């Protein structure tokens, strides 16, 4: 990029090309802001990138096998797009709404995830996707199925302004435990509703007001109803397509991108406690803006640890997951109580059908919150479900969050990606940063749905 052709003054500077940062860059560009987007890495995605097999070996293995041996075993490097942070999109979730609102669906193709499974007493069971599957599911006995049916009917028919649909329950006063008790649901049913449908990672939600759980279950049911099979979508060629899609959106609206451009110095106006962000100095020159949006790696001194760490294990398989038919993609949730833990374990499975690995291979990515001093041992129950593993890559990441909201110094930082299996917490972060930067909430316009997913 010719330095003389680059403007030096912008409305917003964005550092890092993680999914969070790229969405914000795209949204602000659409709003008419002049955006400069910089990344020290030479590829999109930041911590949430999709990488080739050779990049995966470089990142996780100290003594990788030779290129010839690797290609003989796993096929061409270019066939691999492996997510460093595995997540699926909820069909009716907020990220999908943002994709449709911005028309980024023009640049990214999606495929439906075949099924959602839950672990119970050593086996995996498909989470029912419709009434027929619920009736035939071995997860519940016949009387429990009737109670479950009444519970789901209440969820779907509930109307805020019609008291006769509330069944005497107040979503802002009753706890979720009280809601379950109202319908007489047993422990195993509560477990799969709370963990495989509401997607809570632990049981703390039981003693909290019911509204958040109600909204999560409703989102799950509406997402399943859209296409059937499962509530999840996944982008062809991996999650790395998402930041690239939003980068393209930003560029169309005048955004400028610079990859492989480390920050040499952050510039400030003012003194000590009152100093505000002014700009950045790079090898391509000095660029100014009244505010910056960045991932935690650019301002580590302005972030704090949440006290949690996530362990992720990327497993390469040459066979489908045992007990799930020949599914080309699925999610497995291992509820914490089933394996004497405090947090659930998630397994996201994708395959060559998604153009993320070579033909005949599958990727199973396990993630959970670390609870002990031997985190790899915590994943044993998940490894057992996968069958023989050809190759395994493991990493641990600390979860960081900003110390302040950015209003003092105009430095607005995103949160690290958590262990959850979906993007809802990330889109909450996007909406929160957008509000702090612009002063008004993100309003997603109603428009004709352009999302098409292959099954």
From TrEMBL:
One of the GO BP terms on file? protein transport
GO CC list: cytoplasm
Instruction: Name the InterPro entries for this protein.
Output: FAD/NAD-bd_sf (IPR036188), GDP_dissociation_inhibitor (IPR018203), RabGDI (IPR000806)
Q: Which SUPFAM superfamilies match?
A: FAD-linked reductases, C-terminal domain, FAD/NAD(P)-binding domain
Pfam families named among the record's database cross-references: GDI
GO MF terms, alphabetically ordered: Rab GDP-dissociation inhibitor activity
Q: Of which family is this protein a member?
A: Belongs to the Rab GDI family.
Q: What protein name is recorded for this chain?
A: Rab GDP dissociation inhibitor
- Recorded source organism is Naumovozyma dairenensis (strain ATCC 10597 / BCRC 20456 / CBS 421 / NBRC 0211 / NRRL Y-12639) (Saccharomyces dairenensis)
